[in-house]
Design goal:
The chain contains twelve helices and 19 strands. It has 462 residues and is of the alpha+beta class. It binds adenosine-5'-triphosphate and manganese (II) ion.
């Protein structure tokens, strides 16, 4: 008989139906000649209760059905008399044990392992309730990203992972090379990358934005969704060295359009999670208390509070709180400042716009005041920046000037200026860090707990 997934069985099953399920044993207990196995197959938060009467031949296999064992069970679907579950399965015939798990050594014996411990066993943690929930939410969010943009006519573009652009300014880059590290070719005292694989130095991308811009200047509205890499040595709970980013780029659009898109996008994602992952969120709410169905419901309906950088500075200057870092117009907001705005002042997401040009990237459009740029950051409680975006400078003369001021090498960026030389148009976009989003939605406090294989300084497994 074909195996049926537990998720499907629980939603579409009919009492009396013969079924076959496969999964991993969560718990096993025996009482008065009946054994009970809680089985999980990863398709849903719920476990399926298998009921095995003494008379069933399956009863003889129970000694091999320890926590962690992989089994197949066949039986009859029954309405469950127990509270909180719709169906159970009476296993009248065989249980097939694919692989037992020795109770003396299987690391996931009891409930309530710490997240730190689970990080040590990254290959087994997806079997826990917590990581099952997080990874299913992650999946639904990824699906919703495509749904949102595709429904609005955006074109998914695949920007390169290996790039020659080294001036995005988003963080430190990883070099991609096939040079012999023991015998680096030297010229003029430094490494001669003309002898490297690509004939010049290449990097792992920190962002697909610059390439996204030339695609938007042809296809209109585009988005990327792919991995990005940053060699920043920041061992924080919200930085990874490899993370996924979503970057829409919209043509004939200004900062307002960009903000509106970010808000609609964020609300849509919350809505989809509620619709498709309610039991996952309910589980995370119950055990970690850093997310909740009610909160996501509010988020899915509320627009972002909007404040300009200059007003944010005024707000921070008024604060009674003592900050570690100085607050002054012209200085960047530190995470303590961001957190004050989101957690103390507004108690929710805040969108801050129009930052001083000196603290933002060269491609952001200069405002009429000559001092600020059309930038926006979306800040959320507990995490800080989740989205960074801007209207891009489309005026050739202004962009050239800003590149000169910022010391951007022109020889590698001729193509970028071409976009302003031929058929330039206003355009805008943003980058949403996918793991920060998953973190915010699930309430997981460490970003390393929302990606299967986290990469961070001194941390690489598998
Ligand atoms: P931060 O100041 O938090 O390091 P950033 O200013 O470097 O962020 P951007 O360059 O604007 O961020 O990148 C766009 C988005 O990518 C950010 O808003 C954030 O959600 C995400 N992001 C940036 N760096 C990381 C990282 N190291 N790990 C995970 N997500 C990141
Ligand atoms: Mn950064």
């Amino acid at each position: 008989m074909q195996r049926i997934r537990i998720k499907k069985l629980l939603s579409e099953g009919i009492a009396g139906q013969d079924i076959s399920v496969c999964g991993w044993v969560r718990t096993k207990r025996e009482s008065k000649g009946i054994a009970f196995i809680a089985l999980n197959d990863g398709s849903t938060q719920d476990t399926l209760q298998l009921v095995i009467p003494e008379t069933s031949p399956a009863f003889q296999k129970l000694s091999q059905c320890n926590t962690g064992a992989a089994i197949r069970a066949a039986g009859v679907l029954k309405e469950s008399p127990a509270k909180g579950q719709r169906f159970e399965v009476e296993v009248v015939s065989e249980i097939e044990v694919f692989g037992d798990a020795d109770p003396a050594t299987y690391p996931l014996q009891k409930k309530g392992h710490t997240l730190e411990f689970m990080r040590e066993i990254g290959h087994l943690r997806p079997r826990t309730n917590t990581f099952g929930a997080v990874l299913r939410v992650r999946n639904i969010l990824a699906e919703a990203v495509h749904e949102f943009f595709q429904d609005r006519g955006f074109i998914w573009v695949h920007t390169p992972i290996i790039t020659a652009s080294d001036c995005e300014g988003a963080g430190d880059l990883f070099t991609v090379t096939t040079l012999d590290l023991e015998k680096l070719p030297k010229g003029n005292g430094s490494v001669d990358f003309s002898q490297d694989f690509f004939g010049r130095r290449a990097f792992l991308t920190v962002s697909g934005q610059l390439e996204g811009e030339f695609l938007a200047m042809a296809l209109g509205d585009v988005y990327t969704f792919g991995p990005t890499f940053r060699a920043e040595n920041s061992n924080t709970s919200r930085h990874l060295s490899e993370f996924w980013m979503i970057e829409p780029e919209i043509a004939f659009a200004n900062l307002r359009d960009d903000m509106e898109l970010a808000g609609d996008f964020f609300r849509f994602l919350c809505e989809r999670v509620l619709e498709k992952c309610e039991s996952e969120i309910a589980f995370l709410e119950k055990f970690y208390k850093n997310t909740s169905i009610a909160e996501l419901k509010t988020l899915s309906e509320k627009s972002f509070v909007h404040i300009s950088y200059s007003d944010a500075i005024k707000e921070l200057e008024r604060a009674k709180e003592k900050f570690e870092f100085p607050v002054k117009w012209g200085l960047d907001l530190q995470s303590e400042h961001e957190r004050y705005l989101t957690d103390k002042v507004y108690n929710g997401p805040v969108i801050v716009t129009d930052y001083p040009q000196e603290i933002k990237a060269f491609y952001m459009r200069l405002n009429d005041d000559g001092k600020t740029v059309a930038a926006m950051d979306v800040l959320v409680p507990k995490i800080g920046e989740i989205i960074g975006g801007s209207q891009r400078e489309e005026r050739l003369d202004v962009l050239t000037e800003r590149m000169r001021e910022s010391g951007i090498p022109f020889e590698n960026m001729a193509w970028y200026l071409d976009l302003r030389r031929y058929g330039s148009a206003p355009h805008a976009g943003f980058g949403l860090g996918f793991e920060r989003l998953v973190q915010y939605i699930t309430g997981m406090q460490n970003i390393r707990d929302v990606i299967p294989c986290p990469r961070a300084p001194q941390t690489i497994k598998f």
